[in-house]
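Tutorial, part two.
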Amino acid sequence: MVVAEKKSKLRGADVEDLGWVNPHAKKFELNKERTAHWLKVGAQPTDTVHNLLVRAGILREKKVAVHGTKKVAAKAA
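Running the prediction step on this input gives:
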């Protein structure tokens, strides 16, 4: 998990590395002090990162629904 500028490219340079996530083992490790600092100065986490921060106890909010609903295909008449 990294801090990046909003307008930077996907493979652009990162501002700071805050930790790692292993979705297969459902494990993660964060630098809580630096993460709290970036949130305090206005960094906006994605929905998935928001949920990880709630699980880690850094944020005291409800989790956000990440997966949307399935689109219903219009039936051909």
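The mean pLDDT is 85. In part three we will examine how such features are distributed along the chain.
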